[in-house]
Specification:
It contains five helices and 15 strands. It has helices at 22-27, 76-87, 137-146, 152-155, 183-192, and strands at 5-8, 12-18, 42-48, 54-63, 66-72, 93-97, 102-105, 114-116, 125-127, 197-203, 214-217, 220-229, 232-238, 247-249, 252-256. The longest helix is centred in the first third of the chain and has 12 residues, at 76-87.
């Protein structure tokens, strides 16, 4: 059995959530169902604006005394502030935790203290304890990008609808749960099938184009480049302009590499 890579994700941080009302509190806010979340289970979710734009991504990890929220470290204070704003009289405690976030991938990814990543099996698992690591975050980011999975750098804040960021394909939205902030717009996009844009990986020769560079189908704008590295990047693309045509960015040819998991 292949030994996995373990990388501490310095870009992520933890918020501990507890109290008798923690489930109902999060249930009314997040795109994912937490009422049925079990201890040891991990679920991927988003916190949206009332207009349905993606504010923050997060993972909800079931714990013995509540849940752990795995969030972008740069936004943890803002997320705490926003959650506190919604708390009102709910009996829930929100505390910044010093637990590390560790990605476990590329080998055996089951065992004590490991939470299976709900997005794709190939992404492995996550851990929230002190354990030895043997890789850095850049190795994990290369692994994620190779699977065609977008990340927080790609969707920013209040710039993207979660379906455009593939949350519906990566187990990030439960369309059967009750209301959550931004639900009306999200459900309408899914119900009407009006998904015009999606984040998809593109490949090319050489270094990545700058963030925001136009992807062109002939002379027509087909999207924009997001985060990337040599040879590969994510792009937000218009689905009606990328099939059967030559695409370029700043004069360079690029190719869309649609992952198997993208419908």
């Amino acid at each position: 059995m292949t030994a996995p890579c373990l990388a501490r994700l310095a870009s992520r941080a933890v918020i501990a959530v507890s109290g008798p009302d923690w489930r109902s509190f999060l249930q009314g806010l997040l795109t994912q169902d937490v009422e049925t979340l079990a201890v040891g289970e991990l679920r991927f979710a988003g916190l949206l604006t009332p207009q349905g734009k993606l504010l923050y991504d997060l993972f909800v990890a079931g714990a013995e005394d509540g849940a752990l929220l795995d969030v972008a470290a740069a936004h943890r204070d803002a997320i705490l502030t926003r959650l506190s704003m919604y708390r009102l009289r709910a009996k829930v405690e929100l505390v910044a935790s010093d637990r590390p976030v560790i990605a476990v991938f590329g080998g055996a990814t089951s065992g004590e203290g490991l939470y299976a990543d709900p997005r794709l099996p190939a992404l492995g698992a996550r851990a929230y304890d002190d354990r030895a690591t043997n890789a850095d975050e850049d190795v994990y980011e290369a692994h994620r990008l190779a699977l065609g999975v977008p990340g927080p750098t790609d969707w920013g804040s209040e710039a993207t609808y979660p379906i455009e960021a593939n949350f519906d394909l990566l187990a990030g939205i439960d369309f059967k749960k009750g209301c959550f902030v931004g639900q009306e717009t999200t459900s309408r996009m899914k119900r009407r099938g009006t998904i015009k844009n999606r984040m998809l990986p593109i490949t090319f020769d050489g270094p990545p184009p700058p963030f925001g560079a136009e992807v062109l189908a002939g002379e027509l704008r087909a999207g924009e480049v997001l985060s990337g590295r040599d040879g590969q990047a994510m792009a937000l693309l218009r689905l009606d302009r990328i099939e059967g045509v030559a695409l370029t960015v700043e004069g360079r040819p690029v190719r869309v590499e649609r992952p198997d998991w993208v419908a």
